[in-house]
Design brief:
Elements lengths: L4 E3 L1 H9 L7 H11 L6 H17 L3 E4 L6 E4 L1 H5 L2 E3 L17 H30 L4 H38 L1
Parallel strand pairs: 1-4
Antiparallel strand pairs: 2-3
Helix pairs in contact: 2-3, 5-6
Length: 176
């Protein structure tokens, strides 16, 4: 006995039950939208069906003629000789439990920003020290000092945000 080949339920309805042959992608899309229980976005339906058509062409089940929008697809003898059955819908399959996301990247980013913040705070200290030691350089050092202060405020904000998020995630996990 020949083993059956499973294809998507929608392709089974269109190609086997409705017997579509010599169709364009748009004609297949329109037919799928008319028989589908769910109203889907036409562009998404076209993309989904086109991926199926490409797979069928690669398997030798469909042949194409023409180019661009005039391209038409025909069932091959190989496809007609297959024992084709529709795939069972995904509703019947239980979905696996999704693993919890890994937020360790947030801790890593926070530690990176903390390290950068320490460097910038060291720069600020050094600019201030140089200003005290060499008052004549104050005009030249002040713009660099202000820029370092701005960077430290920016980094400090990032550290605070990530710390708050990490604490919130930790408290959510603790409550569970």
């Amino acid at each position: 006995m020949k083993r059956s080949t499973k294809i998507s339920a929608i392709m089974h309805k269109l190609l086997i039950e409705k017997g579509m042959d010599g169709f364009s992608v748009i004609e297949l899309r329109d037919a799928s939208l008319s028989i589908s229980d769910l109203r889907k976005e036409p562009d998404e339906a076209r993309k989904r069906l086109y991926r199926q058509i490409l797979r069928f062409v690669r398997n030798g089940w469909l042949a194409s003629e023409g180019e661009g929008r005039d391209k038409r697809y025909f069932q091959t003898d190989l496809f007609r000789s297959l024992n084709v059955k529709p795939k069972v819908g995904r509703e019947n399959v239980t979905s696996p439990v999704k693993p919890s996301p890994d937020y360790s990247v947030l801790r890593h980013e926070r530690n990176q920003y903390k390290a950068e913040l320490e460097i910038v705070l060291g720069e600020i200290d050094e600019y201030q020290s140089l200003n005290r030691r060499f008052p004549e350089l104050e005009q030249k050092l002040n713009p660099m000092l202000q820029q370092a202060r701005y960077r430290s405020a920016h980094l400090f904000g990032k550290v605070n945000v990530l710390t708050n998020v990490i604490n919130t995630i930790s408290s959510d996990v603790a409550e569970c």
